[in-house]
Amino acid sequence: MDSKNSQILSLGIHAAVVISFYALQYVLPEYHLLALTRIMLLAIFALGFNLLFGYTGLLSLGHAMFFAAGMYGAGLTVYHFGWSVPGAFLFGVVCGAILGFVIGMIALRTTGVAFMIVTLMFAKVSYLVIVYFTTYTRGDEGLVMPAEFRGFELLGMSISLTDSVTRYNLALLLLTLTMLIVFLLVRGRFGRALVAIRENESRTRMLGYNTFAIKLKVLTASAALSAMAGSAYALMFAYIGSSFATIQYSIDPLLYTLLGGAGTVLGPVFGTFSMFYLIDIASEYTSAYLLVTGIVLVLLILYFPKGVFGAIRQKYCRWLP
Amino acid sequence: MDFGPFLFLATLEGLVQAAVLCLTALGLSLVFGVMRVVNVAHGEFYMLGAVLAYWITSWISGNPAMGFAVALLLAPLFVGVVAYLSEKIILRRLGYDPEATIVATIGILYILQQTALLTFGPDARPVEPPLYFRVEFPWFGYSGYKLIVIAAAVILLLLAWFVITRTRLGLIMRATQFDRETAQNYGIAVDRVYAMVFAAGAAFAAIAAVLIVPIQQAHYLMGGDPLLLAFIVVIIGGLGSIRGTLLAALLIGLSDGIFSVFFSPTLAKMVSTTLVALVLVFKPEGLFGHRSRL
Amino acid sequence: MKQKKESSSTDVTGVSSSRRRTLKTIGTGIAAATAPVWFPRAYAASEPIKIGAQLHRTGIGASYGRWYERTATAAVNLINEQGGINGRPVELIVEDDGTDPKRGTEVLEKFATQHKVDVAYGTLFSHVVIGSSPRAGELKLPYVVCSEGHHVASGKLNRYVFQPGITDVRSQVISMAPWISQNLGKKVTMMFPDFAFGHDHRDYFSQAIAEQGGEVLELIAVPPTETSFTRYFPRIPRDTEVLYHVMVGPGVLTFVKEMGQHFGKKRPEIFGFIDSLEAVDLATPQLEFLEGTYFWEGNPRYAQADQSDFDKQYRAAVGVDGKGASLADPKDVSTYSHMFACWESLFIIKEAMELAGYRSVADKNAFIEAMESLQKFDEGLAHPQGNKIFNPKLHQSFGHQHISKVGADGSMEVVHKTSIEDGLYESDVDYTQMAL
Q: Which of C19, C54, C348, C361 has its CA 20 to 30 A from that of B106?
């Protein structure tokens, strides 16, 4: 298949996914509507993570700090300064981007496992910062966004975040935007440079690329997307708390990504989706649903070692982004 | 309390913390060093060791030292077998791909943790130390068993150092670590070495757990912290370097302890964590190790 | 209501042996946790009232969660035995929140939209309750929590959230202060976890002890990630008369042991919240030094000399012996001090539903208003911990607190019981003014 056709085809597939998400809201029972809203936001987090991990080959174990930066950037400005939702949302994203840039300046001096550890440790520091300023953040207990900040006016429309259909469509909008951003980033020259860094960084450097600058850009973008997920999560579900900054939330996007397929656009989305329902369904049958999760993970990795979409790409369509 | 004794106590606690770190890191260092894979389930092998120690010591009545000795023997054996099997059944088939191994060991982590929850239950359980005495300093009292933990860490480190540098087994391990293919060409059964190393790493975690659990407590979620800390120690110390592991453990343990004298506790944790991260940034190959080849 | 009781007791006679069997299994752990709640056959035909229980089956709160589940199951069994609510059986639908606010919120949404429960019934850890509460308000799902945090009464939650079964921590703390300053000492050092729950203790106790003419010498906030505590003890000033400690989480046993090692015999008076040692046997080795120290208890773990009949029946129904341990396994110690909240909250839900003539989800507003019309709860089988007054504006109950002294074999004897008035505080929170 030539590259032009494949490009159109893959665009079509991704568009079809977005459209089916859109269509689902008319048929899904309410619970799944609520669940999918969360799944889409977490999928944004996973996509942001995957940009760094799947395409650039940098495994961060600290992405919870970017999610939390968005969450607290948005949540604290709403709570303490009464900012309206759009401003707070953007501020959250900016917080994540700045944190990503700063952490990148320091942590990108390392690679491989050292990078994993450094990001892990900075994430731990971020968690402690939230706890340390309990006076303002209420630490582990967290804060509830006041009800008067649940609605906002934008472009003449009044939007209420208490409405589940509105939230669903906003989450879908953000997810579509994220998929588009990732799609554009990884298709072009920049994307090829990322993959080149993943495969062999020193050779890429010898070819004249400033790999540090590229990695810094991609880490900043990855952090901004993760923060966008956190920011939206805080505003849509009206709660911020330090549990979202714990190591669990750094592992989750890794898990989603590996499950769905690292270095694919649809993989993290699929991974988030299946992890959620795996836990949700298994927990109805046993309190040891994480045991089921563990077994499924092991089986998946044995039979789909490149993740579900990685396997599909390898077997059927090598052109999938 | 006056500053002097305070600092003395902080140092003492830092040393205990360093000993705990050394003990938990040793097994991980072995696996990580030789096999070049991150075993996320390492902390759960540790937890398993502690839980088994609780079970064994509560079955064997009489002198707590008896139960403890049996636990020190049986728990690592059992944990080693579990690890050996999981290596054979799961990890080997993944070809030690770094990413796939992480997912698989996360799966193993959940399996072990939840099995412990189902069988052992959610409560924290104490384990009696084999011998208990209180060391009375002029300013404060201190658990004598904690000093024993420091001694045990030193002995185990020496043992590990001896095995790795002075025995044929160690030579085989080092050869495998250095270059897998060449080692294979020289007739080393790399698969068998890997299985043994993985089992030995887990058994080490269990030994550490049995030694440490009397100063902490057995709980099904206890595996998280030791994993992270051990991981950090291993990286900072440099792969496969016993000396590095020791120094990294001292650095982290003491900085954690001594900073807590000068700062409010949470701030101290923030400062010491940042500092350790910066050490890694400016010395990414670790304090003493060879450059990471991952 | 009395009539209803009589008519239903004839209903259950035919199957009462199966109830007994069910009761027996409570306390045997996982089997009980996953067993469906049993209904008398007579009203199996009528639709049950569904109560969605969000509980810590896994995660850091699992010790509590297991006992909360046993207590709730026992209460529901008793309610059903007494004829259910408005003649309908009660069904408890348990979902695990993993002691995590995110999962807790998801579970709450599941209750509202998939299980379509009448009432959600909450859990212990404050972050799960607080994280879930905005969604409860937006889904218009009544959410009755058993958490003891000062969050419902702080006014930051919403009209759908109630805490009627247990006194909040602010009230607990201030009711302790007079007795501490009069009997143990006026110079206090506090050790508490460096997060919101600990800060509530810090703020409200410091204020309360100052009002008693005492002072706090030193505040030692311990980071929540800590697993070893020895290095914090030197911060305790030498002239401390009372050490006040409240630690939570799986590391607490280590904390208490290390406290003993540090002090030996030369210790100040020690006053702690039993939260530090819930689900832990006080007869554990190295806890001997606790003899002669004092604990706050919500509900006394050891059956006291003046034990009420209600406490006896409550213990028997939940499956707990006179030492607060499981009847099935004496090593399995309950979270006795807190778990009465689960029992009492269910009876309060029943009371309000009967008051409102609750038939279906359409009567939700009537239920909320009925809850807000409650003023007091009398001691009885429905309220074995003691009588309480309920403040409808705060959505919060206020009850008696106990101070117990640890005896030789780890037993605990109540030495002081506070009055309800000791724990009252001024507040201008008024949930009843919020829209439904």
A: C54
φ/ψ of residue A92, rounded to 5: -60, -45
In tens, the pLDDT along B232-266 reads 888 788 766 778 888 888 888 888 777 777 777 78
- Euclidean distance between CA atoms A109 and B136, whole angstroms: 48
pTM: 0.86
Q: For residue B88, give Cα distances in angstroms to A26, B121, B185, B207, C257.
A: 48, 28, 22, 22, 41
> pLDDT, tens digit, for every residue of C336-386?
999 999 999 999 999 999 999 998 888 999 999 999 999 999 999 999 999
Q: Which residues contact B220 (CB under 8 A, 6 or more apart)?
A: B47, B51, B113, B116, B117, B120, B121, B122, C62
> Using a CB-CB distance cutoff of 8 angstroms, which residues of chain B are in contact with residue C226?
265
**Chain length of chain B:** 294
Cβ atoms within 10 A of the Cβ of B283, count? Answer: 15
Provide the residue type at A177 as one letter: L
Of B17, B134, B265, the CB nearest to C223: B265
CB-based burial, A279-317: b 16+ in 10 Å, e otherwise: bbebbeebbbbbbbbbbbbbebbbebbbbbbbbbbeeee
The answer, yes or no, to whether ipTM is higher than 0.90 is no
Q: Any bridge partners for residue B99, and if so which?
A: none
What's the CATH architecture for B3-282? Orthogonal Bundle (1.10)
Which one-letter amino acid corresponds to residue A2?
D
Q: Cβ–Cβ of B219/C250 closer than 8 Å? A: yes
Give the Å distances, CA to CA, from A48 to A14, A92, A117, A216, A227.
17, 15, 19, 14, 9
Q: Up-side HSE of residue C32: CA atoms within 13 Å toward CB?
A: 26
Q: Which domains are present in chain C?
A: 2-169+307-400+429-433 (3.40.50.2300), 171-304+402-423 (3.40.50.2300)
How far apart (Å, rounded) are the C-alpha atoms in residues A229 and A47? 10
